[in-house]
Amino acid sequence: MAKMTEHTIGIDISKTHLDAFRLEDQAARRFENAPRGFRALIRWLGQTPVARIVFEPTGPYHRAFETALSGKLPLVKVNPLQARRFAEACGTRAKTDAVDARILARMGAALKLEPDAPAAENLFSLKDLQVARTALVKERTRLRNRSHVQLNPILKRQIKARLTLVERQLAELNAEIARHIACDKALERKREILCSLPGLGPIAAALILTFLPEIGTLDRKQAGSLAGLVPHSRESGQWKGKSFISGGRKPLRDALYMPAVVAMRFNPDLKAKYHALRAAGKPAKVAIVTLMRKLIETANALVKADRNWVPKPA
């Protein structure tokens, strides 16, 4: 009996609609970016065996789509920059919603992209809270900087009042994030393991759990790569450039910086590593990035083993 063809679907998501393209029979269809449209999309797919549905994240516009269909259909979320580079490699210069849907389908089939693991509903709420918290932290920094140079007494009073409000809102968000994690026993256990590492506190642990939900299921290189902390070499012929880090999940990388600075002083293993790198002539920033990578790799290994960090015996 012949095996049924598994279809690859590309979907370009905009504010009001979804442009879908089925690669195998070249069928295209537009749906509303709303629950009614999601139901129509499922009906359009019918009994068709689907290998993957490829889409790009589009800020707030893909959230409802991903929430409604995650776990029901094999969704694959791809980096928009990589999708654009794939289109250019295919010689496609035009950029419309229909063209983007076709390119996404071709990319999914050519690279044989595997579906993502279904996202936990709790994770979406955590991400929303963390994004709002990051905005408040930036606002607090901006207000503090302005308060140092402001001389007008009315403006200084207003800045002080806004700072008080921002601090109160930050405290509310921190408490809500902690509550979300405490409601999930698996997440709570992971946070306990992360907080056992010298340098990682509850806030940094919550950021890691939000932006690296795969922690504990990755190998060593994957953990560093997802954080964008694996250096890339640049060589051509006899020329050798400096290695650099790039890509990965920036919020995760940002969350690891201050814990690495703290670990540099209070984590005996990482402290020894930092001084060894500096003694070898490495710049301070390079040494700190190395500690950031070691920190996330150690955290991933501990979560995988389901054990807390303990200091090495003398």
Walk me through what this model shows.
The chain is of the alpha/beta class. The chain contains 12 helices and 7 strands. The strands form 2 sheets. A 5-stranded mixed beta sheet has the order 3-2-1-4-5. Helix 10 (250-266) crosses helix 12.
Topology record:
Layout: E1 7-13, E2 17-22, E3 27-32, H1 35-45, E4 50-55, H2 63-69, E5 75-77, H3 80-89, H4 97-111, H5 121-149, H6 153-182, H7 185-195, H8 202-211, H9 220-226, E6 235-236, E7 239-240, H10 250-266, H11 268-279, H12 284-305
Parallel strand pairs: 1-4, 4-5
Antiparallel strand pairs: 1-2, 2-3, 6-7
Helix pairs in contact: 5-6, 7-8, 8-10, 9-12, 10-11, 10-12, 11-12
Task: Please name the defining characteristics of this protein.
alpha/beta, single chain, 12 helices, 3 domains, five-stranded mixed β-sheet, 314 residues, two-stranded antiparallel sheet, Nucleotidyltransferase, domain 5
Helical content, roughly?
55-70%
User: Which stretches are poorly predicted, pLDDT < 50 over at least 5 residues?
Assistant: none
The outline comes out as: globular
Strand content: 5-15%
Radius of gyration over C-alpha positions, nearest whole angstrom = 23 Å
Number of domains: 3
Largest sheet geometry: 5 strands, mixed
Order of strands side by side in the largest beta sheet?
3-2-1-4-5
Mean pLDDT comes to 88
Structural class: alpha/beta
Taken in chain order, the helices and strands follow as EEEHEHEHHHHHHHEEHHH
Question: What's the total count of β strands?
Answer: 7
How many DSSP H or I helices? 12
Instruction: Give the terminus-to-terminus CA distance.
Output: 65 Å
